[in-house]
Design brief:
single chain, alpha/beta, Rossmann fold, 8-stranded mixed beta sheet, about 25% helix
């Protein structure tokens, strides 16, 4: 580390609602960058000097989908379920200035903690709402129905996604919000045999007609625990740009789409409110060196 960039101090905060510990650590290799962890699970990486730099693998894949779906520099309307370090909202503001964004987060003091140490850009149109992601989403103003270009589902309680944001009923509510050609992106964490992720892809396919996924090769092939980014478009089709996603990295990457998505999710049942369960936890030592 250069003497020009002395190591910053880490910050911690116990979240009032869950009791989990949120921690912001400086990235020693990228001055001006921070890593947010909750319950010892890395959640987000944010580069304050360059919000267009997406460091975490799954966040980079989300960025590729956004860039492929929406022209650069044109503003969009986006809804984010789950805040993290607000990495994707910052990215959209940087690449599509003037975008109208809303973030729903159950831990109000998490957003306060992040914004205190990693402030949002001045003038960014990013509104934060607080409460259970599904409950708040379903109570949004009716004027948003059919007008949201992008919904990002990145809801975690510690290292696990809660059941209520995994079902057919939940995704049908999202579909009602989407504008024509609007897209939903979901971050799913799972491990071998990827039963939870397969169920999520089957559920998205049931609701949207077509859906796709992109992940690191070992994750897609059920070799290790990791993140798979799933997506679907309100038009019930797989857009032409999906075929190029794997080539955009990070590498090695696998695209699951078309007949491949049918095969990959064939062993999984569609998830309903009656059958939904939380995502599986990773091994406790997965994120520890």
């Amino acid at each position: 580390m250069s003497e020009d960039y002395p190591m910053a101090t880490a910050f911690t905060h116990r979240l009032a609602s869950s009791g989990l510990i949120a921690r912001l650590d400086p990235d020693q290799w990228r001055p001006g960058s921070w890593v947010l962890s909750i319950d010892d699970t890395p959640q987000s990486h944010v580069d304050l000097a360059d919000p267009m730099s997406l460091h975490f693998e799954y966040i980079a894949r989300m960025g590729h989908i956004i860039d492929a779906a929406f022209p650069s520099a044109e503003s969009i309307t986006a809804l984010h379920l789950g805040a993290g370090a607000l990495t994707i909202p910052r990215y959209i503001e940087a690449t599509r200035p003037g975008s109208r964004q809303q973030v729903i987060e159950i831990e109000r003091d998490l957003i306060d903690f992040v914004r205190q140490h990693c402030p949002l850009p001045r003038g960014a149109s990013i509104r934060c709402r607080y409460g259970d992601a599904r409950e708040v989403m379903e109570s949004l103003p009716k004027g948003l129905l059919g007008r949201v270009d992008l919904v990002v589902v990145d809801v975690f309680r510690g290292a696990r996604t809660p059941a209520q944001v995994t079902s057919v009923e939940f995704y049908f509510a999202i579909k009602q919000l989407l504008a024509p050609g609007g897209i939903v992106i979901a971050n799913v964490a799972d491990g071998p045999p990827m039963a939870f992720a397969r169920g999520q892809l089957a559920t998205l396919r049931y609701v949207f007609g077509e859906a796709f996924g992109v992940a690191e090769q070992g994750v897609a092939n059920s070799k290790r625990f990791g993140n798979i980014v799933l997506g679907a478009v309100s038009s019930d089709t797989v857009p032409h740009w999906v075929s190029a996603l794997a080539g955009k990295g990070p590498h090695p990457a696998v695209l699951i789409a078309g007949a491949g998505a049918v095969t990959w999710s064939a062993s999984a049942a569609v998830v309903t409110d009656n059958t939904a369960i939380d995502s599986p936890p990773p091994a406790r030592n997965l994120f520890r060196s």
